[in-house]
Amino acid sequence: MLNPRQVVDYALQRRALLGDVRAGRVGPEEVCDAGAYLHRAARFHGTTVDETCPVCRKEPLAQVSWVFGESLRHVSGSARSGADLEQLAAHHPEFTVHVVEVCRACGWNHLVRSFVLGTGRRQRRGPRTAGG
Fold this sequence. Notes:
Structural class: alpha+beta
Distance between the termini: 40 Å
Number of domains: 1
Number of strands: 6
Strand content: 25-35%
Radius of gyration: 18 Å
């Protein structure tokens, strides 16, 4: 079971941006700019949510969880499933998760929320040796 800490919700920022798109102050091409890597992550690691894209209104959105943290080493900066998050949270002291919503049709993408997961305990290092 996940116990997120330091949760930040970006709903107000999203709402303001979509208002600017609808008012014509921001063009759709400026917000529908998901790159190939994000599209692939949405297809293979994304979770489809019960919300249609607010820009093109063609397809349900996918949410992708990206993990970042020093203790994650090579895993840091990658997209992960919910099961992966649970496993990482059980074995690493602390890392940040960024949840991004993505439209596979038009490329809309926006940060939905971020939070911290992990055991909260510092990893112990091996014993120090003399002279090193």
